């Protein structure tokens, strides 16, 4: 049984690479009507997310010796550093770097989940992770990461436009593509999960923090005997909702928050043990939320004072 879990994790990882290669090699759906093209791209993202979530679920249900978890983490870090050092943003390396994020998240989720004494510890831990991510997205490192990615995309667009102007029309497409590849990709690009699209490309959709909380939730489900099907479908649904809301409102909404709070709500109604939360856990949850809200308010007032 222990070996089976490891084997299925490996099979899932190979299936992800196969899915990635197949999706980006399909004839481009951009030749189809716009709405149908967008629908097929959305379907590709959902299928890719489902497969990655399944790999994490199976990986957190397996029994990994301590040495193998250290090796996983080191391999994950290496898969992030390799394309950065090579300055290579090719699709194969984006596929492998996404697997690297799984290798990083699995041992972290394993370590946190195994230290939960009871299932209701999920509440303060999930609240802490969610508010930390809110702070990071709107005022912390994640905000700077998104700004860096937007700046990179702008540089790519400008380079492509300039290259297309300098050559005959029949060579514009190839010149623009070469110019885009020449723009150095920031290292933060590889902290995002790149999901394949049937247009010969891959898009950054989720961050490493989202994978970490998934790994933590799935490990907690395994340790405390929660319904893993409920955990899988609830986390997947919450991630899709967060992604859809981000696209609709054109905002960088943190998927981790939706996953954490949405899953807690689902578990509250489906798992009676979750309703046995004690006073200490409730107070700790409110204290953590209050601390991050105070930090955000202080940073906002400080920034407003500087502007004035």
Give a short synopsis of this structure:
By secondary structure, the chain is mainly alpha-helical.
Features:
mainly alpha
| Integer-rounded radius of gyration | 21 Å
- In spatial order, strands of the major sheet run 1-2
Question: What is the helix content?
Answer: over 70%
Q: State the domain count.
A: 1
List the helices and strands in order.
HHHHHHHEEHHHH
For the residues shown, what is the average pLDDT? 83
Shape: globular
Tally of individual helices: 11
First and last CA, distance: 64 Å
Low-confidence stretches: none
Biggest sheet layout:
2 strands, antiparallel
Percent range for β-strand residues: under 5%
Total beta strand runs? 2
Structural class: mainly alpha
Structural summary, described in words:
The chain is mainly alpha-helical and 308 residues long. It has one domain (2-307). 76% of the residues lie in helices and 4% in strands. The chain has eleven helices and two strands. Strands 1-2 form a two-stranded antiparallel ribbon. Helix 1 packs antiparallel against helix 4 (91-113), helix 3 runs antiparallel to helix 4 (91-113) and helix 8 (208-223) packs parallel to helix 10 (255-270). It is globular.
